[in-house]
Specification:
With 215 residues, this protein is an alpha+beta fold. It contains twelve helices and six strands. The strands form two sheets. Strands 1-3-2 form a three-stranded antiparallel sheet, covered by helices on one side. Strands 4-6-5 form a three-stranded antiparallel sheet. Helix 10 runs antiparallel to helix 11, helix 10 packs parallel to helix 12 and helix 11 packs antiparallel against helix 12. It is globular, with a radius of gyration of 25 Å.
Length: 215
């Protein structure tokens, strides 16, 4: 072995000896110690459910997300902020999304998925954004087509697209991944435009089958 190769190996050994392992930065260090706050407004009709389910909402936020949270009854809002114990830099935003989902009408069991999974979103739209001329009985029939008898059509769309859907007056909220939201939204739009529930659910099953084959 020549002198050049020996020198190169020696230099590499010296580099290995002086490798520095930097410790992971804490959440407070990443935010420069600044307090991050969110205030989530709660609609009047969701205040009673919020009070009833408060411990189910409060517990995962404090125990798992390590944030501080309080219910402001006078302002009809929930306030969330980080603290010294907060470990995840995105904990405040995730907590706010969780509370927001509940305020829109999703169950706690469905909303809590926003704390555990990274790729979940909420998409909201107005029924009149799809078909502006809908009003009165026509609007009621469109909502009836979406819900179906005893909620059957809505449940079918939810199960096939792996989403959760909330219909609040003329607003529709969808919770799920980006791809699954698009599948559910296409079905809802078709129903609003007048397609029969049977045709929509049949097409939805075909799309779902193709999705399963792809993955």
């Amino acid at each position: 072995m020549d002198i050049g190769n020996l020198q190169m190996e020696q230099d590499m050994e010296d580099d290995v000896k002086f490798v520095v392992n930097f410790p992971a930065l804490s959440s407070s260090a990443l935010t420069s110690g600044k307090i991050e706050k969110r205030r989530i407004p709660i609609p009047p009709h969701r205040m009673t459910p919020l009070k009833r389910e408060w411990m189910s909402i409060y517990t995962p936020l404090v125990n798992h997300m390590k944030v501080q949270v309080r219910m402001n009854v006078k302002a009809r809002s929930v306030e969330v902020r980080n603290c010294e114990e907060t470990e995840d830099i995105g904990a405040v935003q995730k907590s706010a999304d969780f509370v927001k989902a509940f305020s829109l009408g999703f169950d706690v069991a469905d909303s809590i998925a926003l704390l555990r999974m990274e790729d979940l979103y909420i998409d909201s739209f107005e029924i009149k954004d799809v078909r502006a001329v809908l009003a009165g009985d026509n609007l009621s029939r469109a909502i009836g087509r979406i819900v179906g008898k005893d909620g059957k059509t809505k449940y079918t769309i939810e199960n096939a697209s792996r989403t959760r859907i909330v219909i609040a007056d003329t607003k529709i909220h969808i919770l799920g991944t980006f791809q699954n939201i698009r599948i559910a939204k296409d079905s809802l739009v078709a129903l609003i435009l007048g397609s029969s529930p049977g045709k929509v659910t049949s097409n939805l099953r075909q799309v779902s089958a193709r999705q399963r084959e792809r993955f």
